[in-house]
Amino acid sequence: MHGTYTQIINASIEWTKTILFRPFNFKKWFFICIIAVLSAEFSGFNFNFNLPSGKFGSNEQQQSVTYNAENQGVFCEIPTSGATQKKAEKEWPVIFIVGLITAAVIVAISFVVFFTWVYSRFSFVFLNCIVKNDASIKIPFSDTRIPGQSYFKWNIFMTCAFLAGLLVLVLVLIAGIFTLAKISPILKILLILLWVLLVIGMVIVFAIVTVLTRDLILPVMYKNHRKIKDVWKEMLPLIRNESGEIFKYMMLKLGLRIAAAIVGGLAALAVIIGLMIPAGIIAGGMYFLFNMTPEYLKWGYIGLAIILGLMVVVFVIFVLNMVLLPISVFFKTFSLKFLARLDSKYDAFSIKEVLS
User: Cα separation of 70 and 163, whole Å?
Assistant: First the structure.
């Protein structure tokens, strides 16, 4: 083990300056930011994708549509009894809702799986960017296919394991509510506290495994072009032997993250304040146009405004990550320097040839 924490922090700062400022290149900065965002290395920001919800028209609108259809002579007569017709009218909304929920769940799962795949693959592209001071995407994305696919499978497995563990704890809580309803209030409180501690413990365990994987396992997978299962087997003895140092590293990283969050929050606030004036002018102009828009076009105008609003939100988030990119580069460099401090043979910066 060589180098103090102060030395690796200073070395990480210097390498961050080298990547982003020596010399400064906006195009390079832009592409590194794209890579960082797609690899989930963005500085304290997250994207929450919510499925749209709402009613597909009020009763009055539905009655109006039926009335207009009848006036225009649009009929669809199906021979059926009155009871069967009433039953069909009652069942149709239920079938529609179930189908809609099923479709939404399928879309949501597909969405999560796709972005998990993107995040897994680009994690190695970002490593390549930091190690080689190279903002390329196409070649590193192709060259790191084997470790990237392995990491994707690992992420899917860990997500399923976490959700399964959470489901078990929820079922235990529900069962406890019904089976232990007559016990004393004090015992109830103790059992609830125990359940909360179990949930917190599970979250902490998964968080630690995630940090170890991203900071210690992925660099070795990247350097040696290996799958995650083989690297975990190799690294477990080192993790056990250096558990004290790894704990210090995690605590130091947590402290640095808090400091970075404060600095990043102030920078983000400055950016948001700077964007408020043009955003206010644009919003005022759109409101004026909305009032000037004919009634039959207002729904289309609202839809366009929502799309533009989402684009503005994405733009603001990307600008914030552009401003805070040095934080992402620093922390990834810091983790690589720490791994090299544990054992020099895992120094990713010592790669002498391009992966193929």
Answer: 51
Whether residue 67 lies inside any domain: the answer is no
Place of tokens 């399923």: 160
pLDDT tens-place string over residues 272-304: 888 778 777 877 887 777 777 777 776 777 777
pTM: 0.74
How many angstroms separate the CA atoms of 249 and 5, rounded? 8
**Nearest-angstrom CA–CA distance, 261 and 266:** 8
**Which sign, positive or negative, has the C-alpha torsion 116, 121, 124, 128?**
negative
Token duo for residue 226 = 């290996």
Mean pLDDT of 213-233: 94
Q: What is the total count of domains within the chain? A: 1
Domain that holds residue 131: 5-46+83-350
Residue that is written with structure tokens 């909304």 in the block: 93
Q: Which two tokens stand for residue 348?
A: 């990713």
- Of 179, 202, 176, nearest in space to 191 by CA: 176
